[in-house]
Amino acid sequence: MARFHEACNWLAERAFAQQCTNKLTLQRLYDYELRTRFALPSQMVGRCLARVAGTYRRDKTVCPTLRPDAAMPYDQRMMRCDGLDHVSLTTLQGRVVGAFLIGPYHRQRFDTYAPRQCHLVVRADGQWFLLVVVQVPDGTPIPPTDFLGVDLGVVHRATTSDGTMYSGEGIEACRARSLHYRRRLQRAAHVAPMDGKRPTNIRRALKRTAQREAGFRREPNHCIRKQLVAAATGNGHGIALEDWTYIRARTRFRKPQRATMSGWAFAQLRFFVEYKAALAGVPVVLVDPRNTSRECRACGHSAKANRHTQARFSCKQCGSTTNADLNAALNIRSRARVNAPLVAVRPPQQRWLLAGAASDKLRHFSASSH
Ligand SMILES: [Zn+2]
C-alpha cells in the first residue's frame, strides 16, 4: 500500500509537471520506470496510472498527493474470492490469501452479483477492510396505488400519513450526551496543550466518541427506513418525502431546535429510504415542503397560528385539531398525489399476482387508471 502510493505520488509529480492527464500517454512514458523503480506488478501499475490520471483530472490546479495509507484500488485481476471465506490479493510478495469475514446480508449480495471494483483500506486501529462494490439492479418499479406521506422532525424522527410515529428520542439523547462529553474533552485539551497540539489520549478519545456516535445515529435511521419501506411495499404505496433541498431555507424549526438538528442525519435517512426503496421497486416522490406544517389538511387554510404547540395542530378557520406531525404527513401525501400520476407504468400482470393480495390491488389499479 505504501509503495503503491509512493509510486502514485512520484507519477503525479511528473504528470503535473507536464500537465498531462491522459492515462495512455502517462503509460507510454512511465510504465517501464514504474515497474523497475517501484517493483510494482503490472496490474498495480495499471491501477496507479488510472488513479493518478483520474485524481489529477479532477483538479488540474494542484499536484495530487496521496497518503501512504490511503485507500488502495483493486480490480478483478488483482483480487479473487475463493468462495466467500477467503480472498486472495495481489501484493508485492505475490498473492496473499486472507480470511474474509462477511455478514449474512452482504454474503447474499455477493453470491448474486459479481464484485466489480474494490478498495483496500486500513483503519487507524490496524484492522483491514476490503470495500467491495457490487451493482444491484433496481427492483421493477411498482406503480403506486397511493402514497405514504412521511414527515421528518425532531420529537418524532418520522411520522407517516397512516399515523405511525418513529421516535427520535434515543438519537437526541445520544447526541446530547456525546456533545457534552466532547465539550469536556475539548476543554481539557485546551487546558493542557502540548506543543500547541492536543494530547494524544484526548485526540484518541475524541475520535472514538465520534465513531461511536456515528454508529448510534446510523442504527435508528436504518430501523426507520426498513419499516417505512416495508409499510409502503406491503400496501403497494409509493413514499412521499419533503424535498430537502429546501430545508435550509425554511423556518419550520426554531433556532435552538435548528442547532440540535444536523441536516446530515436527515440526509442520511433520506438516502437510506431512497436507495432501499429503489431496490424494492417502491417509487419515491419529493414534494415542496413549504407550509406542510401550517396548512390544515381538512380545509387547506394555511397560517402560522394553526400550529398551536409543537405537538398540536388546530385550524383557525375550520376548528379541526390533529397531531401536528400527522397533519404534515397527510399534507405531504396529498401533495404527492397531485404531483405524481398514481399509475405511471403498467407492470407485468404477474408481478401483482406474485406480490400477494393481488385481486384487491388489481381492482384498485384498474379503477384508478381509467
Ligand atoms: Zn381547517
Can you offer a commentary on this structure?
The protein has eleven helices and 13 strands. It has 370 residues and is α+β, with helices and mostly antiparallel strands. It has three domains: 2-70, no CATH class; 74-134, no CATH class; 146-170 and 217-369, Nucleotidyltransferase, domain 5. Strands 9-8-7-10-11 form a five-stranded mixed beta sheet. The protein has a three-stranded antiparallel beta sheet with strand order 1-5-6. The model is unreliable at 254-260 and 342-370 (pLDDT under 50). Zinc ion binds at residues 296, 298-299, 301, 315, 317-318, 320.
Write the SSE topology.
Layout: H1 2-18, H2 23-38, H3 42-58, E1 72-74, E2 79-82, E3 86-91, E4 94-99, H4 104-112, E5 115-122, E6 128-134, E7 146-152, E8 156-160, E9 165-167, H5 169-191, H6 200-235, E10 237-242, H7 255-260, H8 263-280, E11 284-287, E12 312-314, E13 321-323, H9 324-339, H10 349-355, H11 358-369
Parallel strand pairs: 7-10, 10-11
Antiparallel strand pairs: 1-5, 2-3, 3-4, 5-6, 7-8, 8-9, 12-13
Helix pairs in contact: 1-2, 1-3, 2-3, 5-6, 6-8, 10-11
Bound molecules: zinc ion.
